[in-house]
Amino acid sequence: MIAGSLQLLVTSPPASADQRRRHDVRVTVDVLPPIAQPGTEPADPVRGSALVAQFAPTSPGSDVVFERSVRGGGWRVVGRAVQDSAGTATLAVRRGIYRVRTVAGGLTWSSRPVRARRWAPDFEDTFSGSRLDTSVWNDQEREPEAVLAPRTCALVDPGARSVGGGVLHLGVAPDPARAGQPCDYDWRGSAGRSQYLLTTQVATEHTYLTQYGIVAARIKPQRADGMHSAFWMLPQDSRFYDDDPARGAEIDVMEFWGDTGRGAETIGSFVTWHGPGWSSLSLGGKFPDARRALGDDREWWQEFHVFSVEWTPEEYVFRVDGREYYRESQAVSHVPGYLVLSMLAADYELGDLGAGDLDDTAEVDWVQVYDGASR
After folding, report:
1. CA-based, 20 to 30 A from 177: which of 6, 94, 95, 205?
2. Can you give the C-alpha Rg of the chain in angstroms?
3. Which of 82, 119, 84 is nearest to 291 (CA)?
4. Could you tell me if 152 and 121 are in contact, meaning their C-beta atoms sit under 8 angstroms apart?
5. SS3 assignment, position 318
6. Closest residue by Cα to residue 283 from 274, 293, 271, 292
7. What value does the mean pLDDT take over residues 207-229?
């Protein structure tokens, strides 16, 4: 990444060295694809670049000014924002040279200039029309008794998903072929009973693979618990090798388990692979800091956000609307992978699934893949 480090732009009156040290502000600017697009409604993907400015120390609520270099010299203001609770501000821009500035301690601080280019997606689906494009996505048929997260009472079926209004709806539905039949399951010694269900899991398994780059999806998760939505990747041919993630790892960009009533729900991101005997090994977890991307008094199920991972030969960087919340340099996969979107109901969560919850869905506005790394 290119980080535009701090520089003192203006002082009035001139500040002493001691004054500057007391108010030093580091301004870091990442140049990303246009993967910062929060909002309550579906929207076409933004073109160009996203500038993501990070300030340290943070000053939430402080004004941030984005400027573009103009021909002949000088700078022109092209956007304004305020620092969020994480000290971050973002702006979608076209190609050009930019800098970002703020005021702290009576002094104006600016990043060094950074160059933005127009990013072109290597893969994109905006889910227009009324049907899923099955030349791109296939419903992944999986045994209901999955090895790592059993789904005794659920089968993947197209009857649990739909496309309309510019979004792909990921859902869970009753299984009409087994209506009225009870399903008994056991999760870690605790017995339960559920109706039989249909779930969603669509993938580019047979149509599109990518290796490294930036993978992103604009999603509004479901509110219902007892099911979980996810955007993830699996290695080519779904092959794993015992205790060797370099030869294939599962990359979970985003998982969300619904409204638990605690008011602190957040997303999870993981890197998972197989240990000896199909044991599960993973890194990552749930990240409370990701909630800083939410609007004031909003929750995940009220807004669309762009969830992304930047996958390089050295590391993974997980972001929401361009804001980094997790970076991992271990267990990096070096084989191509395919995209997966899902809404699943595993045995461990069926006890929380109510009849009314089956009307809820996660909404996927678009999916994009960019070939290249951030700058």
Report:
1. 205
2. 23
3. 84
4. no
5. strand
6. 271
7. 97
For residue 201, which of 237, 159, 166 has the smallest C-alpha distance?
A: 159
156: tokens are 């993947």
Measure the CA–CA gap between 373 and 286, rounded to whole angstroms. Answer: 25
- At residue 198, the 3 state secondary structure works out as strand
**Do 256 and 264 touch, CB atoms closer than 8 A?**
no
Phi, psi of 156 (to 5 degrees): -70, 130
Which DSSP string corresponds to 223-287? S-SSSEEEEEEEEGGG---TT-GGG--EEEEEEE----SSS----EEEEEEE-GGG-EEEEEEE-
**What are the angstrom distances between the C-alpha of 372 and each of 9, 117, 216?**
32, 12, 13
Cβ 204 vs Cβ 137: under 8 Å:
yes
What predicted TM-score, i.e. pTM, was given to this entire model? 0.91
Is residue 32's pLDDT more than 90?
Answer: yes
Which residues, 6+ apart, have CB-to-CB distance to 69 below 8 Å? 75, 96, 97, 98, 99, 113
Conformation bin of residue 272: beta by default, left when phi > 0, alpha when psi is -120 to 50:
beta
CB atoms within 10 A of CB 4: 21
Whether 371 has a pLDDT exceeding 70, the answer reads yes
CA distance 68 to 210: 33
Contact by Cβ (8 Å): 112, 351? no
Confidence of residue 18 (pLDDT cuts 50, 70, 90): low
Q: Hey, what are 155's tokens?
A: 């089968």
Which one-letter amino acid corresponds to residue 308?
A: S
Residue type, 9: L
SS3 (DSSP) at 13: coil
37, two tokens: 């697009």
Coil vs helix vs strand at 101: strand
